[in-house]
Each structure stands twice: as structure tokens, then as C-alpha cells.
Amino acid sequence: MSAEPRINDRIRVPEVRLVGPSGEQVGIVPLAKALELAQEYDLDLVEVAANARPPVCKLMDYGKFKYESAMKAREARKNQAHTVIKEMKLRPKIDPHDYDTKKGHVVRFLKQGDKVKITIMFRGREQSRPELGYRLLQRLAEDVADLGFVESNPKQDGRNMIMVLGPHKKKTEAMAEARQAQEARKADAKANPGKSQNVAEAEDLPAEEPAEA
């Protein structure tokens, strides 16, 4: 069935409940009268509630209405935030440097408002030591507790152990903050045109401690 409403001569009922172009209630009128009013206003008669008894019809510029509706839908899709599930794989005996690197990725994903699936991969004799993976997952969850929470507790899945972290911050909030930061950088670049790109990029890094006297 078509999602398009019936308009003008495609409406086939003896009478309709008519709504005027400004939203005013005209009342129940014969279909012929409603079509006559539509011609007088140079508008379309659009059936907006087909299941009502009698059906509700409104006088409007249907072409303009369709265009505005399409633009609103397009804008809504543009601003719609989809939560993405990222994945990070670790070994139970991961070395400290690799752990810090992996944790950094998890932090970045959570800041972006994405979920993170953490997979601990066991090999060989490691499979007999699931507590190693469990402790590692607990440690990671504690290290990023200010950014995310354990949405799915650690569980064994064959040779792997899996945990899912969810962000405290919603995706829409993360996107809004990212846009604000980008606009702030652009404004700063305009205010300080002589500043080098390297300096601008360094603004995202923590400030250095002042040297002791």
C-alpha cells in the first residue's frame, strides 16, 4: 500500500471533517464543498486521517508540504546518532605498554559515545587460567570507569572471554561536544592567524607543568 495520502479527486467519500489552511476547524462538509474551497484558496485537499469517521482532510499546499517534510527527514537523518560497537582484542598476558595502548583506544571509543566489546583471547595452556582474563577485564573496567560502565559482564565464549563496556555519555552528546570543540578551534584559528598548525594541534595535549625556579 502507498504511504502517500489521498488528495483532491482521489478522495472518495461523501463527506469529510475539514480543517482550514491555518488549522481552524471548518466542520463536517460534503466532499464537493471541500473541493470547491480548495479551488478557491488555490490549495490541495489532503486526507490527513483516513480512518476517522468521517475522514479528516486539510487544505494545504501539498507540494510545499512534501518538500518541507523531506527536508526535515533529511536533517533528522543527518543528526541521528548511531551507537557503534567497537571491538578490542587482548591477550591475558599482555605487556604493560600494549595494555596502555589498547586502553587508550578504549578511552577514545567511549569518549566518542561508542560501546566497546573487549575480547580476551586464550591460547594453549592459557585456557586453563580463565581467572587471568577475568582479572584483566576487571582492571580495564576500573581504569575507564569515569568514561564507561560494564554493560555485559565477562563471560566465557569458547577460547575467548568477552565483556562489553557502555559509554556514560550518549552518542548525541559526544557528537555535540566534538562539534563545539571543532568550532572553538576554528574561532581560535581566525583570531590567531599566525599560529602554526602544530601549535593548534598541540592544544589538545595536556599543558606542561611549569618549570621549577
TrEMBL record:
<comment type="function">
    <text>IF-3 binds to the 30S ribosomal subunit and shifts the equilibrium between 70S ribosomes and their 50S and 30S subunits in favor of the free subunits, thus enhancing the availability of 30S subunits on which protein synthesis initiation begins.</text>
</comment>
<dbReference type="Pfam" id="PF05198">
    <property type="entry name" value="IF3_N"/>
</dbReference>
<dbReference type="InterPro" id="IPR019814">
    <property type="entry name" value="Translation_initiation_fac_3_N"/>
</dbReference>
<comment type="similarity">
    <text>Belongs to the IF-3 family.</text>
</comment>
<feature type="region of interest" description="Disordered">
    <location>
        <begin position="170"/>
        <end position="213"/>
    </location>
</feature>
<dbReference type="InterPro" id="IPR001288">
    <property type="entry name" value="Translation_initiation_fac_3"/>
</dbReference>
<feature type="domain" description="Translation initiation factor 3 C-terminal">
    <location>
        <begin position="84"/>
        <end position="167"/>
    </location>
</feature>
<dbReference type="Pfam" id="PF00707">
    <property type="entry name" value="IF3_C"/>
</dbReference>
<dbReference type="GO" id="GO:0003743">
    <property type="term" value="F:translation initiation factor activity"/>
</dbReference>
<keyword id="KW-0963">Cytoplasm</keyword>
<feature type="compositionally biased region" description="Basic and acidic residues">
    <location>
        <begin position="172"/>
        <end position="189"/>
    </location>
</feature>
<keyword id="KW-0396">Initiation factor</keyword>
<feature type="domain" description="Translation initiation factor 3 N-terminal">
    <location>
        <begin position="7"/>
        <end position="76"/>
    </location>
</feature>
<comment type="subunit">
    <text>Monomer.</text>
</comment>
<dbReference type="InterPro" id="IPR019815">
    <property type="entry name" value="Translation_initiation_fac_3_C"/>
</dbReference>
<protein>
    <recommendedName>
        <fullName>Translation initiation factor IF-3</fullName>
    </recommendedName>
</protein>
<dbReference type="InterPro" id="IPR036787">
    <property type="entry name" value="T_IF-3_N_sf"/>
</dbReference>
<feature type="compositionally biased region" description="Acidic residues">
    <location>
        <begin position="201"/>
        <end position="213"/>
    </location>
</feature>
<keyword id="KW-0648">Protein biosynthesis</keyword>
<dbReference type="InterPro" id="IPR036788">
    <property type="entry name" value="T_IF-3_C_sf"/>
</dbReference>
